[in-house]
Amino acid sequence: xxxxxxxxxxxxxxxxxxxIFSKYLPQDLKMRDTIKVLSVGCGFAYEAxxxxxxxxxxxxxxxxxxxxxxxxxxxxxxxLSSGRFRAEVADIFQTNSLGEDNDLIIIRNPAFxxxxxxxxxxxxWTEVIINCTQALKIGGYIFLTSTNKAExxxxxxxxxxxxxxxxxxxxxxxxxxxxGEGMPFKDDYIAVGLRxx
Length: 197
Ligand SMILES: C[S@@+](CC[C@H](N)C(=O)[O-])C[C@H]1O[C@@H](n2cnc3c(N)ncnc32)[C@H](O)[C@@H]1O
Hints:
Elements: H1 12-24, H2 27-30, E1 35-40, H3 48-54, E2 58-64, H4 67-76, E3 85-89, E4 102-108, H5 118-134, E5 136-146, H6 149-160, E6 167-168, E7 190-196
Parallel strand pairs: 1-2, 1-4, 2-3, 4-5
Antiparallel strand pairs: 5-7, 6-7
Residues 41-43, 46, 63-66, 69, 91-93, 108-112 line the site of S-adenosylmethionine.
């Protein structure tokens, strides 16, 4: 049986995400009466508690293809009311998994594309962004953080092309942080915010 790691104390990446998210949270999103949040490839959904603290009117739904992580995520957040937190086994490449009219889609440390060729990375990553864009409402946001430079470069390439995806750099922020002592990774950490118009 696979062993699922679920460290309960959080880690510096989660802290970093919470800080960046709070800092760059768009005001118009914060002011909405209801906020439908989707986290794709949510894993253990570590970000949910902090996000729901910052956005008390939000409903969070996380999806991931890994059943064990989803089960652990549900267990981890069982103190939250069921309306506010859901986590389900679903595949981002199945577009009906994403729902519709999301106000905010979180793509956090994705690395969906590991072990694939550059051409495949480009194709599949473009598909991820397009699928997410189509699951947003107008004025909805994608908030992406990654340490994977290929994913970020392809994201910026998609944004910079006039290919009908209609994403603008509404809250774009490139936050390149040198990892400090004790950080569990060595790469730069970059956050990108996109707004669908
Ligand atoms: C690097 S982990 C990030 C997990 C979490 N977002 C975090 O930051 O802690 C990438 C996650 O994407 C999930 N994943 C990979 N392919 C997926 C797919 N096609 N649909 C949904 N989730 C997927 C994996 O199971 C894994 O949990």
